[in-house]
Amino acid sequence: MFLKLKTGINLYYETFGNTRGKPLVFLHGNEESSLIFKDYISHFMDYYVVLVDSRCHGKSSSGRLSYDLMKEDMIELIESLNLSKPSLIGFSDGAIISILMSLEYSNIDKLFLIGPNINPNGLKEEAIKYFKESESIYSNLCLNEPKLEPSSLNRIVNRTIIISGENDLIKDDHLELISNSIPNSYHYTISGASHFIPMENKDELIEILDNELKIDVYYEDNKVIVVDKKAGLLSQEDDSKELDLLNLVKDYLKIKYHKKGNVYLGLVQRLDRNVSGLMLFAKNSKSYAFYNKFRPKKTYLALCHGKFEKEKDTIKNMISKDENKKIAYESKDGKEAILSYEVLSYKDNISLVKVNIETGRFHQIRFQLSNIGHPILNDSKYSSFIKKEGYDLGLDAYKIVFSHYNNNESENCVIKRLPNGLFVNFLDELVIS
């Protein structure tokens, strides 16, 4: 299929897989085409896969050639196909294009950068020699572009996976510079591999892509890992034996670090099944003991029915748990529950509210907000006029703050991200701290 771009370029692309699945856009390298990714299609059929030929490559038409122009082409393609938060899998030139897109375009999820560079000085001498001898528009592109400052990369908010070969054409220190400059990044080096990983190391690359696509990591060090829990996913395994986040993260760490046997992972805090948000897990027993003593603090966003009389307030109740009905209720024999809220916006009879809790009681936020007449969106358990409770609840733990020890000095580590799903139409241009 061809897309006629505003610049007049006819961009060739193909789509495969599940049209309702998460979009993956594959971007090839210099003097190549999307054919290099043809063998990957069958493995990612649960996703909505888009293969595209860059301008002046493959079946796409020719024109002026620059990374900035290719970046604009890809953004226009994503907009034309109405792709929501696609992950970009870019090889070589495709990795450069992905970086440029992420610096100015917010409608992107994860970045997979295979053999990237941010300026020609990152190329090894043999690569520079090859391009000088080629004397083509393609080699001139690589010898003169891109021209990015490492400091600009700290603006990239996307989870970024850098993948390179042990014998790559990109200098090792340049790859590390890119990795160290992007806040939420991780660098995989494939043993014995050259620069041409998609063609020569398909199995290793698919394993990395599979593993990094299945969970969303927002922070990791040798003590903890912070990941995003989707609404509907269990925090930990129960009698139903359904998929749960604890085991997903264990599997992720096992594959990522090639661990043999069982992986230790401590569940520090839980989220209800139909609540989304950030969760911190301890990677060893010492950090698990530490974070059970010094609990991470979570801040929530809630979508509530109705307009609040007070813009800010603190709510206190004595709460008990009904073990049979699995609900919270007010009781003089219960435990004190303290919640503070701040209304951020209001439209369509829905209030967007920021919530902090001083106590961690069962269903505390859901019960307390409903108890003052503002039940959470989609929460039939605490609202008589909501007929059916789905797994996507209007409650999200968007920020987590925890003590982080580095060189025997303590500092607060703040991890946050804005939720999708029900929240998209209510966040608008709000800046939420």
Describe the model:
There is one protein chain. With 433 residues, the protein is an alpha/beta fold. It has helices at residues 67-80, 93-102, 125-134, 137-144, 172-181, 197-200, 202-214, 245-256, 285-293, 364-371, 424-427, and strands at 2-4, 10-17, 23-27, 48-52, 87-91, 111-114, 160-165, 185-190, 216-220, 224-229, 266-267, 276-282, 297-305, 312-322, 327-330, 335-347, 350-357, 395-406, 409-416. It folds into three domains: 2-214, Alpha/Beta hydrolase fold, catalytic domain (Rossmann fold, 3-Layer(aba) Sandwich), CATH 3.40.50; 220-293, Alpha-Beta Plaits, CATH 3.30.70; 297-427, Pseudouridine synthase, CATH 3.30.2350.10. Strands 9, 10, 11, 12, 13, 14, 15, 16, 17, 18 and 19 form an eleven-stranded mixed sheet that branches.
Quick structural overview:
The chain has 433 residues and is of the alpha/beta class. Helix content is 24%, strand content 29%.
